[in-house]
Amino acid sequence: MVAPADTMGRQATAAPFAIELKGISKAFGPVQANKDINISVPKGTIHGIIGENGAGKSTLMSILYGFYKADSGQILVGGTPTPIPDSQSAIRAGIGMVFQHFKLVQNFTVLENIVLGAEDGALLNTSLGNARRILRELAQEYGLDVDPDALIEDLSVGHQQRVEILKALFRQADILILDEPTGVLTPDEADHLFRILRGLKDQGKTIILITHKLREIMEATDNVSVMRRGTMVATVKTRETSPEQLAELMVGRKVLLEVEKTPAVPGKVVLSVENLRVRDEHGVERLKGISLDIRAGEILGIAGVAGNGQSDLLGALGGMTKATGRITLNGVDLPLSGAGADGQSRREAGIAHVPEDRHHHGLILDFTAWENVAFGYHNDPKYQKSALFMDNDALRADTEKKMATYDVRPPIATLEAKNFSGGNQQKIVVAREVEQNPDLLLIGQPTRGVDIGAIEFIHKQIVALRDAGKAILLVSVELDEIMSLSDRIAVMFDGQIMGMRDPATTDERELGMLMAGMDGKTAGEAA
Amino acid sequence: MDRLPRWADITLVPLVSLLFAAAISALVLLVIGQSPVEAFKVMVDGALGSPYGWGYTLYYATSFIFTGLAVTVAFHAGLFNIGGEGQAQLGGLGVALVCLSLPWPHWTVALIAATAGAALFGAAWAAVPAYLQAKRGSHIVITTIMFNYIAAALLVYVLVDVLRPTGQMDPASARFPVGAQLPALNDIPGFNLIFQRPVPANVTLLIALAMAVVVWALLWRTRLGYQIRAFGKSEAAAKYAGINPVRITIIAMLISGGLAGMMSINNVMGEAERLLQNSSEGAGFIGIAVALMGRNHPFGVVLAALLFGFLYQGGAELGLWTNIPIEMRIVVQGLVILFTGALDVMVRMILERLFRLFRSTKAMRAA
């Protein structure tokens, strides 16, 4: 069952390993990002590395790819000790990396991107010719079909990722590291990716898959290593473990993966949206006529792949983005442009907003926790001492109270926001918005970059607000989150709503079809 | 990364930066064949060695406090106001117009009116770049620099063609009436026990110190200051919170320009007692260095202004009593700005490393 990490390490001498890490440690100042890490990845397997944000996964992979130098420890590739001082050495050692954020030149073709940095000789044409031949072979061998002459900007995200994989294979990578590869994919594209990975494995490649999604680990990997606070807690065989056990290993205590909630009791319509349209600064229509209602006491979940207009919907409703159309809150029209179409007016009307990006919008990282608690509500009478001066003492007291209720750690109101972990930052934002007791809560990516313990807590707060008879609009790219929290699900694609579904009667497959832009009828037939 | 303790960040970093600047200045002096020790003695003696020297040092510092505060307020809104010089010159025009308009009965009344005039003219001069930045996105650094030149040209025109009394040769206004002349520190009871000879430092110093407190309260105690700082830290977040970017940009620049303009009550009303060409003498630019060195905190600005006042006065003394060219003070100022402003990170890195070393040896001893 759960073997301590170092016993796996000791077996290293016996079995052929593609890559072995022995006693890797790395500190950034006082923060020990990696502490005595041992992993052995057998050749021709898919090895998962799972852990919460800040557990040290990315640091470890950066060491493996030569971005950081470990303070101590050894890397063995194919049994021989191999120092990796830079990424060129990593590539020479046969290690390829597919980053979470693709490193592709948008207005180059697939072929040009693949050759970039690996040109053989001064003349581009010979390089491209050779590359075309190799690419054809790779495509046949691994079923990685991509048009070599297509421009990157014309490709879907899933195809762009394939180009990244091809780039690594073109550089003769035997060991492929993928960092959170499914974050930008639809469920269908993710399935396709896993098929590709299995194909690569069958051809003898070794794959390291870094993720925080338990489902993917269970689905795709042979072995899984769990990291917690810089240490390797355990390495187990995937078929001998369960999501619950992995979650417990990640967090260090038992966690509830399912959200507990009773059926919704929807009341009157709180928010009504009619034909909402948004154009971005380039004149491109980002929202193409959205209409929806949200009732009191219900959570409407918006599912969709990132970038399909969800942010614009939140922006228009939250007063950050100019729009056309009509929105009413409790029967009262709200302006969509000009005076009154700003965050202040929306808050005064009773709309609270937990933005998708807490670092750029939700918080001012250089401000203290208490200054952040006033953020957006700095005009609120309860925070004023007089017409001119703010009541900083009242604010600090209020912040301390909120920090206690939301279990923000450390509970220091005078600490700057940037010094809190992601989960605690998000709790500060959620506390600020939810405690205003709004009629409508807009909440975007409530648990992005948030640890499992805090996820559980934030989900509870959302459900509690619903049960208090408030309307909630939830936007998330995590389909699991949408499925478990929502009372109704709207799927967005290309600025439109592709369909409304009941979470009780739909499934990921159907939602995935809608997310990929196939309309309800086609999706129904395919299902 | 290891962070410095707060006290070290506030006191040690600027002090070490100054030491570096002093060391390099000493080297430069050695190269031109002068004695750094002698030069330092003359500077300290001339600027701080007597009440008379202090009278000059404080006079310069007063101007620098205003212009430093001006840069500070704009900086907290994320705006880099390089136009302090032009705003100060326009402030001088405001002071002159007020002072020459009436036969003022008493200096207190004249001071209030002249302060208002200075602030108003300075703010108005900042309003145009502010509007262009807020509404049209024209970069405020560029526009404020250009407005410095326009201000200089405008002042020449006004002084030569409008305010110059007939028959006067130099481009300057008429002398202000007696009722608009401010008491110097040697005229003020209490202060006159220290300053027994006439000094240029005047009652404006007290206004400058009061403004430092006002700016501090504005930035950290009022709702407006909160919005200014929030906007300055993150424009995107300010938009989310519903803070109007146009409004904050314009208000912050009006306050900034007003403060820069107010420096003219020190030099124009308090010292020259008439408006001269180029009255602000670069104090608007020194304000940028003062704000940088003062960490954009009003109290830091006061201390940095004192330092630059010392450099100004000490530098002038160098020109008087030694063979060192007066331009040397520009070299020293440049080095101070270089080390406290631009090379701040380098100094901090060195100190952080020292602190870490110190801590680990202490930890080892404890273990």
From TrEMBL, chain B:
UniProt entry keywords in alphabetical sequence: Cell membrane, Membrane, Transmembrane, Transmembrane helix
Subcellular location: Cell membrane
Keyword Transmembrane helix applies: yes
Membrane topology term: Multi-pass membrane protein
Record Pfam families: BPD_transp_2
Parts of the chain that traverse the membrane: 12-33, 53-75, 110-128, 140-160, 199-220, 241-263, 301-324, 330-351
CDD domains, sorted: TM_PBP1_transp_TpRbsC_like (cd06580)
Major localization class: membrane
InterPro entries referenced in this protein's UniProt entry, alphabetically: ABC_transp_permease
Protein name per its UniProtKB record: ABC transporter permease
